[in-house]
Amino acid sequence: MQEGEILVPINISRELPATEVLKQEKIFVMDENRAKNQDIRPLNILILNLMPDKETTELQLLRLLGNTPLQVNITFLRMTTHESKNVSRSHLNTFYTTFEDVKNHRYDGMIITGAPIEHLPFEDVDYWEELTEIMAWTKQNVTSVLNICWGAQASLYYHYGIGKYELPEKTFGIYKHRVADPKIKLVRGFDEVFHAPHSRYTTVSMEEIANDPRLFLLSSSEEVGAFIIMSNDAKHIMITGHLEYDATTLAEEYARDLHKGLDTSMPENYFPNDDVNERPPNTWRSHTHLLFSNWLNYYVYQQTPYQWD
C-alpha cells in the first residue's frame, strides 16, 4: 500500500468515471478479482440516483461509502419511466440497472437521493408510480434505507403520510443543527451542534413528525426545521439536507440558478465574507463521514442477516 493510501474496500466497476477520481484522492477502490479473494460477506448497497448530474452524485456518495473497513458492493439503479437529460445514455446503460433486474434480489442497504422536482406534487412526478413500487419492495428486501432531501420527503409521504409544503423562499445555505439524543447510534460521535448544507424549496412539518409514534426526530435546526428523522425500527432514515455535498456544490447551484434567471438569494452562512469569489470551507465533512459510517455499521452491517432467506 502506498504512503497516504487509505484501504477502504469499495467494489465498483473499473470503468466508472468516479473510479479514477477516487484513486487520485488516495482512496483505494477494490476491483472484483480482489474482492472475491477476501473471505468475508460484502455488503450489497443499492443506490437509486435521481439527481440530474449523476456522475457528481456518484462520486460524492462513493467517497462516503468507501470510508469504512467494510467491503461494499455498489449497484446503481435508474428509473425506466423517466428520461435523464444530463447524462449520456451510454453511461446509464453501462453503469446502471433497472428495478426489473434487481427486484428478485435482496440488499443490505439502499440510498434514495434527492431530485430537483419539489415544485411538483408527488403524484405528478412522471416516475412516482415506479418509485412507490420500489419503496414498497424495500419493506421486505432491504435492511435499511437512507433517503436524502426530496427522497426523504417522498419516503415520509409514502410510508408515513407526512406531506411537504412550499417555503416562502428557498432554504439555501449552511445551517446549525442540534442532536436530540446523542445516545442514538446514528449520531454517535456527533458534536451537540453541527453544520449541514440545505438546498430546497419545500419542507416538512416538525409537529407531524413529533406526533407520529413511528418516527423519531433525531436532529433539527431552529432556522430550517427537521433534519435527521429515523423510523423506530431504523428501516427508514430521512435526511432533509445534503450532507453529501462538496464544498463548492452550493456555489455551483447558485451560479446555475443565476444563469437561469431565477431570483435566488446568495447561500446563507456559506461564502467567506459573503464574497462569491472566495472559496467556501467545508464545515460539515466530519459529520457526514460519521453519519454514513454509523449507518453502514450499526443499521446495515450489524442488522442484516449473513444469508438472506
Automatic annotation (TrEMBL):
It is an enzyme of class 2 (transferase). The record marks S199 as: Important for substrate specificity. InterPro entries: Class_I_gatase-like (IPR029062), HST_MetA (IPR005697), MetA_family (IPR033752). Keywords: Acyltransferase, Amino-acid biosynthesis, Cytoplasm, Methionine biosynthesis, Transferase. CDD domains: GATase1_HTS. The keyword Ligase does not apply. It comes from Virgibacillus natechei. The gene is metAA. Its EC number is 2.3.1.31. Substrate binds at K170, S199, R256. Belongs to the MetA family. Transfers an acetyl group from acetyl-CoA to L-homoserine, forming acetyl-L-homoserine. Pathway: Amino-acid biosynthesis; L-methionine biosynthesis via de novo pathway; O-acetyl-L-homoserine from L-homoserine: step 1/1. Its main location: cytoplasm. PANTHER family: HOMOSERINE O-SUCCINYLTRANSFERASE. It is found in: Cytoplasm. GO terms for molecular function: homoserine O-succinyltransferase activity. The active site is at C149 (acyl-thioester intermediate), H242 (proton acceptor), E244. The record marks E118 as: Important for acyl-CoA specificity. SUPFAM superfamilies: Class I glutamine amidotransferase-like. It catalyses: L-homoserine + acetyl-CoA = O-acetyl-L-homoserine + CoA. This is Homoserine O-acetyltransferase. Pfam families: HTS.
